[in-house]
Task: structure prediction
Amino acid sequence: MSTAGKVIKCKAAVLWEANKPFSIEEVEVAPPKAHEVRIKILATGICRSDDHVVTGGLVMPFPIILGHEAAGLVESVGEGVTSLKPGDKVIPLFIPQCGECSACLSSKGNMCIKNDIGSAAGLMADGTSRFTCKGKPVHHFIGTSTFTEYTVVHETAAVKIDSAAPPEKICLIGCGFSTGYGAALQTAKVEAGSTCAVFGLGGVGLSVIMGCKAAGASRIIAVDINSDKFAKAKELGATDCINPKDCKEPIHKVLIGMTGYGVDYSFEVIGRIETMVAALASCHYNYGVSVIVGVPPAAQNITFDPMLLFSGRTWKGSVFGGWKSKDSVPKLVADYMKKKFVLEPLITHTLPFSKINEGFDLLRAGKSIRSVLTF
Result:
């Protein structure tokens, strides 16, 4: 029996308010409107950015269905959709690619104007939601919303991938892996023989390490206050691991001491203003490049000595690793299938969707790198 054009009732993890557990509810998912697709989610990863909404660090409207790192199958398409058809295996894209805005048209950009990170409206392009629960509309999250059996996204926010790719692995290409790997290869453009420092060894930080190693960096210094993460960092390419808690001096001075003048490239993959400034100060005073990869906390400003920049350093941000999403995601999936990189070491837990709250508990306790929920 075809579900096309009909409302689908399914299970979703609804977050009714901040600092509360996810509630597994029956929701109604409306059919896709023009230029939209409805996707059956097969697997979705738990990312720290989702937790930032729970804790209030990333401000979004409630109630909301979170999740943005996933893989699924197209169930049906709305009027005018040409790039996807029912049955296609896809990855939803929290940074869409419309192909028409200034960022899409520039070889230097990837932050399509159709993204919903800056505005945080939590609605589809027409200003409405496709989700209803207990008679109330539920907000979308950054154009994806994958903590649900079915979701609706704009055609520009999903891309077809290899039908043979394992969803419970390649879902990481929808955010965590691509964000870190690309920060090194695309945003920083790390060169062979260079020195790098990576602040924060979660799934994204470890993916930065993998990118630095793939680029041929000679020294990759991993920095985290949880020393339990060091073994995995070394397995993926870190040459040195430092716990700032064990250091007598500020971490930027330790890194300068280890390298002479600071590292060529530093990456902040935590989302804390103190570590953002420390990462900037730890790169070479004249030609060092420091990249902000962690989502900055809401309503906090940075104060720093402008001499850090005047001497020549470059400070950059990186969203989704600088990749143009529709162009790059299928290629990254193909590279994974050709074993050009591994994703398995990043996935520490695979849980059924009903155990979503356990997955977030593991993240908060520092016991997981990536937990993947399967449906």
Residues 285 and 307 are 9 Å apart (CA to CA). The chain has a mean pLDDT of 96.
